[in-house]
Amino acid sequence: MSLNSSSSTTMLTLPPFSFPLSARIPALVFSALTYLTIICCNLMVVVTIAINHNLHKPMYMLLINLPVCDMMGATAFFPQMISSMLYDPRVIPYWACVTQALFVHTYGAGSLLILTAMALDRYVAICQPLSYNTIMTNSNLIKIISAVWLTAMILIFILIVLALRFKICRTNISDMYCNNPSLTNLACELTHVNNFYGLFTIAFFQGISLCAVLFTYLQILITCVFKKQSEARNKAIQTCGAHIIVFLFLEFNAFIALLSHRIANVPTFVRRVLGVSVMIFPPLLNPLIYGFNTKDIRRNILAFLKKKTSPF
Questions:
Q1: What's the whole-number average pLDDT of the chain?
Q2: Torsional sign, CA 83, 85, 88, 92
Q3: Which residues are 14's β-sheet partners?
């Protein structure tokens, strides 16, 4: 891997915030509170699943990976953004930028694959209930979780390493945080290989996830429609609807934000807003949609809180 010797100490410049100087402190406080809310809510879901043996089931063992991934993404984004609010111009060391890009993309890829695995689990549970215990064994569960994380980490690691091959001719980051397109735009040379590999990762992660999730939830909805129990059917349809909305939000925003670097007429403001929304809203909404909205998890959380607040 050839890398110019000065790049490791190079300071990169991030775009300035659009809000006035007087709003900087309120924005900093709001961002810090949002980050703490994300960490607390996601950590509560992780701890609840971990300490309650009645939740040690395939569905929840897959689910526990989502808040872990969300906390990783939020931690890659918020601390750097909050600290940069204190300085003008906003700067970040090159290797810190590379590290942030690595974790940001791993978060995005991991989220899509985890949501795909969760959708497949629900498909087997609802559409093939008699085969569920045979298919979702502990051994297969470990294989699925390992495949999700290894696939995300290996493909994203290659993506970032490809960007490190080039000498740096620019120091301005084009997005509000560091990512692969912003790093690639710093290069002096042509980046055809990076562009092709970047498109491959977009097609792989988002294409496979979209097809798998839409297929599984469509099959689930069809199965639920023909169920005689109206209450079970309505509950399943509401749950699938909420999951699909959250998934499509992540899928659409991430896709447009990444693809907009290759489309000249997409406004910079739109790309930045979509990119930031991917880092904020899924980690904030996922513990509500997939965690607290799940009956077993909600019941265990409420029982824990009641026990802690009870004087006896």
A1: 87
A2: positive
A3: 90
